[in-house]
TrEMBL record:
Name of this chain's protein: Putative phosphoglycerate mutase
Active site: H34, E110
Domain of life: Bacteria
Organism name: Compostimonas suwonensis
Spans through the membrane: none
Single annotated GO MF: phosphatase activity
Length: 226
C-alpha cells in the first residue's frame, strides 16, 4: 500500500516535469477532457448523466481541436457519453470521419457517483462532514453505492491495455473523456494507485499528454487550456 505522502511526492515530481515539458521520441497518449457543461460549471458531480456542452464548452472543444491539429493518431477513443462525443466531433474527430473518427469505449465513462450524482461537494459535506471527498470516501455505504476509485482504476487499466499495441507500433493515441476518469488513468499510467489522481487537477476542455522519458512513463504536458 503506497502512503499518501509517497503519492504526493511522486505526483509532484511528474507534474513539475510536465510543466517544463519532457523530450522524447516514443509514442504519446493525448488526453482531452470534454468542454464545459452546466453541471461542471456549477461544481455538480456529473457521472453517468448525459449533460450537453454549454456554448463555452463548445468553444473549448474547438480550441482543443486546434491544439492537436496536424497530429496523426493511430487510435482515437471517446467516452460514449454525449458531452465527450460532442467534444470529439467539434475537435475534428467526429463519428465516421475517414481515418479520424473516434470510437467509443465504455471504459472511458466518468466515475459512477451513485447517490452523489448532481450534487456539489458542499451539499454532500453537509451530510457527511466537512472533510468529505470522493477520493477518500468513495460512494460506499449508500443505497446505490456507485463506484470506488479502485473500480474506476480497473477501467482505466483496461483502456491502457487496449491502447498498448498501438503505442508499441509507434502511433499516438487520443482519448476524449472526463475529469476524474482521465486523472485516474494518468495516475495508473505512472504506476500510482487510482487515488493518486486526486492531485492532478484537470480543467474542462484541457489537453494533456502522457509519454516516456527514456523507458520511464511520465506526464509530458498537463492541463493545457485551449
Amino acid at each position: 500500500m503506497i502512503g499518501e505522502g509517497a503519492v504526493q511526492e511522486a505526483v509532484h515530481e511528474v507534474v513539475q516535469k510536465a510543466a517544463r515539458g519532457s523530450e522524447g521520441t516514443a509514442a504519446r497518449v493525448v488526453l482531452v477532457r470534454h468542454g464545459e457543461t452546466e453541471w461542471s460549471r456549477d461544481g455538480r458531480h456529473t457521472g453517468l448523466s448525459d449533460i450537453h456542452l454549454t456554448e463555452l464548452g463548445e468553444r473549448q472543444a474547438r480550441g482543443a481541436g486546434t491544439m492537436v491539429a496536424g497530429r496523426s493518431f493511430g487510435l482515437v477513443l471517446s467516452s460514449p457519453l454525449e458531452r465527450a462525443r460532442m467534444t470529439a466531433r467539434l475537435a475534428g474527430f467526429g463519428d465516421g470521419e475517414a481515418g479520424a473518427g473516434a470510437e467509443t469505449d465504455a471504459d472511458l465513462v466518468e466515475w459512477d457517483y451513485g447517490p452523489y450524482e448532481g450534487l456539489t461537494s458542499a451539499q454532500i459535506a453537509e451530510e457527511y462532514g466537512s472533510d468529505w471527498t470522493i477520493w477518500r470516501a468513495g460512494t460506499d455505504g449508500s443505497p446505490r453505492p456507485g463506484e470506488t476509485a479502485e473500480a474506476v482504476g480497473e477501467r482505466a487499466d483496461a483502456v491502457l491495455a487496449r491502447i498498448s499495441p498501438v503505442l508499441e507500433r509507434g502511433d499516438d493515441v487520443l482519448l476524449v473523456a472526463h475529469g476524474h476518469v482521465l486523472r485516474i488513468l494518468a495516475a495508473r499510467w505512472l504506476g500510482l494507485p487510482a487515488v493518486g489522481g486526486a492531485l492532478l487537477a484537470l480543467g474542462t476542455g484541457s489537453v494533456s499528454e502522457l509519454g516516456y522519458e527514456h523507458d520511464t512513463r511520465v506526464i509530458t504536458h498537463w492541463n493545457l487550456a485551449p
